[in-house]
Design brief:
Structural class: mainly beta
Distance between the termini: 30 Å
Helix content: under 10%
CATH topology of the largest domain: Jelly Rolls
Radius of gyration: 21 Å
Number of domains: 2
Number of strands: 27
CATH architecture of the largest domain: Sandwich
Strand content: over 45%
Largest sheet: 8 strands, antiparallel
Oligomer: single chain
Number of helices: 2
C-alpha cells in the first residue's frame, strides 16, 4: 500500500512547512530549490551535509503510519558530482526502527555503484559496477524486508532493473517504523549535493502497490474552480485560496459552528497528457481550528457521482498537513485511469 508521496513542490522554498505534519525532522542543510536539470518546472529537495563529520549529516525523517516488516522507498536522485572518497556518504534511503536506531542504509559510492550497509556500519553488499552517474536523474527503488530474528533481505532497482540483491543481512529484530533521506560529509566538511524528487514510500500490505512500483512521477493537482462553496473565504471564492503555493496563513476558507454549512467541492487540474497509468491519489490538505472546541474535517473524492470518503479526523489548533489515500476509483472500485482522475472533484466537509 502507498504510504507517502511527495514532489516537494507544495512548500514553496520554506522547509518549515515540511514540519507541519509531513516530516518528523528536516535539517537546516536541507533546502527547496529549482530542479537542477534546467527543464522541469517544479522544485525539488536539495540535501547537502552540514560538515564536521561525527554524524553531522543533513536529512529528512518520515515516521510511518505503522511499523512494517516490508518497506520500499523510491525516488529520483541527482548528484552534482560523484563522491571523491567513500567517507562522503550520500544516502538516498535509510530505514530505522521505532527507537530511531538505523537498521540499514543505501549509499552512493565514488564510482557510481550502490552499496548497502547495516545499521552498525558493516558493508553487506555492493553493485557489480557503476549504476548511476553525475548530473542526471536516476530512479532508484529499494525494498527492505525484515524478520523477528533480526535478518532480512534487500533488493535495489535502478530505472526498473535489479542491480543488487542481498539475503541474510543484519537488520535488528524490530520492524521498520521510520525512513530517512540523508547526506553525510566527511570530517573535512567535503560533500556532494544530492537532489531528490518524486519520493514515494510503500509497504507490503494491501491489494495494490505492495511491491516494486517501477519508475513513477508524483504530480501535484490543484483546485481550479468551485463546484459548490457554501463556506467563508478571505477571497472571492474558495479554490483560489487552496491553490496557494506556499501556504498563506492569512488566506483561508472556514466553516463556522454552529450551524455547520454543507460540504464544499472543487474541480481539480488535469494530469499531463502523457500519463498512461495511475498508482493512486492522495488528497493532501493543510488545516486547523482556531480554538479549543470541536473541529472535525473529512475529505472525499467524487468520481462520476460515486463518493469515496477519507478519514473524519479531529483537527488541532496547529496548522497541519493531512493526507488520505484513494488507491481505487470509488466509481469502479478498481485502479484509477487518467481520465477518471481528470474528471474527479474533491470535497471537504466539516463534520463537528
Amino acid at each position: 500500500m502507498l504510504l507517502h508521496a511527495d514532489n516537494f513542490n507544495t512548500y514553496g522554498t520554506d522547509i518549515a512547512f515540511m514540519l507541519n505534519g509531513e516530516y518528523a525532522e528536516v535539517d537546516s542543510a536541507v533546502t527547496l530549490v529549482a530542479d537542477p536539470d534546467g527543464v522541469s518546472v517544479p522544485r525539488c529537495l536539495r540535501v547537502r551535509g552540514g560538515g564536521g563529520g561525527g554524524g553531522n549529516y543533513a536529512k529528512i525523517r518520515k515516521v510511518l503510519p505503522a511499523p512494517s516488516t516490508t518497506v520500499g522507498q523510491c525516488a529520483r536522485i541527482w548528484l552534482d558530482e560523484l563522491p571523491n572518497e567513500d567517507d562522503i556518504r550520500p544516502w538516498p534511503f535509510m530505514w530505522a526502527d521505532v527507537n530511531n536506531a538505523t537498521m540499514g542504509r543505501l549509499q552512493i559510492m565514488t564510482t557510481g555503484a550502490l552499496a548497502y550497509y547495516s545499521g552498525g556500519g558493516d558493508l553487506e553488499g555492493v553493485t557489480g559496477g557503476p549504476v548511476i552517474t553525475a548530473n542526471g536523474w536516476f530512479h532508484i527503488e529499494a525494498k527492505l524486508v525484515t524478520s523477528s530474528i533480526g535478518t532480512g533481505t534487500l533488493e535495489v532497482r535502478v530505472e526498473g532493473r535489479t542491480v543488487l540483491e542481498i539475503e541474510n543481512l543484519t537488520t535488528g529484530v524490530n520492524p521498520v517504523a521510520q525512513v530517512r533521506v540523508a547526506n553525510d560529509p566527511d570530517n573535512t566538511s567535503a560533500s556532494v549535493v544530492m537532489f531528490v524528487k518524486d519520493y514515494v514510500i510503500w509497504d507490503g500490505t494491501g491489494t495494490y502497490n505492495n511491491d516494486f512500483l517501477g519508475s513513477v512521477i508524483v504530480y501535484e493537482l490543484i483546485p481550479t474552480a468551485d463546484v459548490a462553496f457554501p463556506w467563508d473565504s478571505t477571497a472571492a471564492n474558495g479554490f483560489s485560496v487552496l491553490d496557494n503555493n506556499p501556504p498563506d496563513n492569512a488566506a483561508f476558507i472556514s466553516a463556522d459552528f454552529p450551524a455547520l454549512p454543507a460540504a464544499c467541492e472543487f474541480s481539480m487540474s488535469n494530469l499531463p497528457d502523457d500519463v498512461s497509468s495511475v498508482k493512486g491519489v492522495f488528497v493532501k490538505y493543510r488545516a486547523g481550528k482556531i480554538d479549543g472546541g470541536d473541529g472535525s474535517l473529512q475529505p472525499s473524492i467524487v468520481s462520476n457521482a460515486a463518493v469515496g470518503n477519507g478519514v473524519d479526523r479531529s483537527l488541532t489548533v496547529a496548522q497541519t498537513y493531512w493526507r488520505d489515500l484513494f488507491e481505487e476509483d470509488p466509481d469502479t472500485n478498481s485502479l484509477w485511469v487518467p481520465g477518471a482522475v481528470d474528471a474527479m472533484t474533491v470535497r471537504l466537509n466539516r463534520t463537528t
